[in-house]
Amino acid sequence: MTVLIIILLFATLWLPHPAYAEKNILVFGDSLSAAYGIPREAGWVNLLQQELQRSHPQYQVVNASISGDTATGGRQRIAATLSQHQPGIVILELGANDGLRGVPIADIEANLANLIQQSRKARAKVLLLGMQLPPNYGADYTARFKALYPKLAQRYHAALVPFFLEGIAPEQFQADNLHPVAQAQPIILRNVMQKLEPLL
User: Is 17 a catalytic residue?
Assistant: First the structure.
């Protein structure tokens, strides 16, 4: 019996400390996070993994972003994704495609709120990446869309990057004027890291 206790004590001592256990950061977004039109390794999500390998090696980044995805689509797939990866942090980057399609603001808000709620239910911290739209649907729609992200962040006490693409010059976009080129990805990473760092 005494020998068994000693063996168990040694086994416990050799177990990894929880502080050094690997933790997943789930990036749940659309083409802006899926490296659309550029090499995948040049995308900001891959750059994030490289940065964390240096500064916070206990974190592993999982990129579950799908080009063309919407908040509606994300709502349908997030439960399975959360269950599979069990992230400690969810970086939520959705809603732009909904806005570009003129989806009612109330519907976008409800779907983003549900994504935050599901992430919180899975015990993950949430970082919400705010977006803005071109004025295709008029000033009122554009303003209400922009206000969605700070509104949701305040309601659910989520961390917020007010504008995900802040600081990117017009010439740093691809020909579609929607997706940043590879040279702009470090700017996106900097925007994200400013708000992600306190969550790590």
Answer: no
